[in-house]
Amino acid sequence: xxxxxxxxxxxxxxxxxxxxxxxxxxxxxxxxxxxxxxxxxxxxxxxxxxxxxxxxxxxxxxxxxxxxxxxxxxxxxxxxxxxxxxxxxxxxxxxxxxxxxxxxxxxxxxxxxxxxxxxxxxxxxxxxxxxxxxxxxxxxxxxxxxxxxxxxxxxxxxxxxxxxxxxxxxxxxxxxxxxxxxxxxxxxxxxxxxxxxxxxxxxxxxxxxxxxxxxxxxxxxxxxx
Length: 225
Description:
The protein is an alpha+beta fold. It has helices at about 55, 140-145, 155-170, 190-205, 210-220, and strands at about 1-5, 60, 80-85, 90-100, 120, 135, 150-155. Strands 1, 2, 3, 4, 5, 6 and 7 form a seven-stranded mixed sheet that branches.
């Protein structure tokens, strides 16, 4: 599992200091994040986000509000944490942990920033030392597909192993970053089903084929095939 977060200059433990002067905080000043944004002149960030509590409360919410992580996030699932680098094209991998538990439904009571969200609860962890951060990763290297909307993606064991290799500084063979070609299937679906799939594509900003592959994987998992 890969979670895309905002950069935090307090080790993801507190509000950022002077975010307007820190290039790493560039994304916080962009629209469409669903957070209370900082003021460029803040000495201590006046905004609010899950990131400032990530390494103290060790949980992360599922978006859009009201959704859950489903059965693909489960205790023991590996979690890799990344943030967008200035410019927004590449990413830095800065931390890893595992899932401790997952909310089966959105929180009904609690602090305002929690209400209505279902959280994945993580094992306590520290950010990797900055010299171990893995920089300049593309979304294809992280999740094998363009990453548009949404803050999390699920990956397979092979991709997990590759990210672990990168953290350890181990070299990868030149062709290991290329996902192996699978068997191509051509299917026809009813117009109503296609319309629902397109709605998911628009809401989550993910390619249609990725959504279909995920649905097939979940269906097979439920059947214990």
